[in-house]
Predict the 3D structure of the following.
Amino acid sequence: MPQKQYTDPYSNFISEDRKSLQNNCQPLSGIRVLELSSVVAAPFAAAMLGDAGAEVIKVENPSAPDALRGWGVSPESKGVEPYYFHIGRNKTPVTLNLKTPEGVAAFKDLIQKSDVFIENIRESSLNRLGLGHEVLLGLNPGLVIGKITGYGMDGPMASRPGFGTLAESFSGFATINGFRENGATVPPIPLADMTAGIHLAYGISLALRNAKRGVSGGQVVDASLYEPLFGYMGGECVNYSVTGKVAHQNGNELAASAPRNIYVASDHQHIALSCSSQSTWENLAHTIGRSDLIDDSRFLTNADRIKPENRMALNQVIASWVADRPTEEVLSIFDKHGVTAGPVLSFDEISRNEHYLARESVKTMKDPVTGQGAQMPNVPFRMSESTNKVRFPGLPIGAGNEVVFKEVLNYDDDKCDALMNPK
């Protein structure tokens, strides 16, 4: 890699980070990902590949950056772009105007030097730019293209625009989420988007096994927003096909097993409990001094316990026992007897929880130049023989222009200047 000297502090930081990627033992070390996408699903897939050591170059329109940069931004956020800070992690952001010949040419050069291309652009728009999948695979026969759309690339709804909220509804999730009296409920987080992003990252990782940059093995990984979340509905889907019973909202309960709910202690704190197997249910009954319930015909088996009237009666027994005691006492008794229960944590409690801190589930990251920092979720799994890690949070738009144009594309100063300062 050429040894470059930069005056911009972001350029220096990014250049040093690129050098470090060449000498690590991360699973995707040596893989380069080019991302042309916005908001959550596809960018989240790219972030996960970056966690595994891939070099991720994120392309944005200089006049219309990723809308995610504006999510959650307020005077209280102190200059931090909360959602982009997290999902823009490990990415080198560059700006290219793909409506200009120079921008398209630079993009094609990046395609030839990449292993993966992640996008969520309308196919018609890519074709108008001369960047359709066939063109890109012609430039790089080993390119793995990861694409996320609302409804997939084929089928009667393929051309319709899609967002996570629509996918959460279309997948069946909203019809079983929440409480029946409130009707269908969508989640307060971009659940469909992040679920789709996980699945796209998985599909890309599989495709990379047979791909060789510039040579062969390239293919398109087609992910929709609704199908991964629909996959989580597998039990409900099978049950309907066998019994004809349509799943509905059960609040905090699980339709397939009981007891499973959230209960309120005497100090008004909430406690989650799930004793859905026979042994865990019997352990709970013994612990709360109601061993007699084990032989009660209403609660003999899970099939008995999930009947609506029996479920209600069982909930009343458990809720009454919990309501007579403060949270600390309830959790202490449950912990002593191995009852599968735990506290319902708020974000302020998570930020200081000893288990989160010991396992580094929460990670404090700082912008490498400004020093502005925030806590964010860490990589949610560990590998014994290799590392996955968040190297840095989301960086400002265009922060990587100079490094990418000079180090990755080997452009001279005049060409770099023309791209970074278009007339």
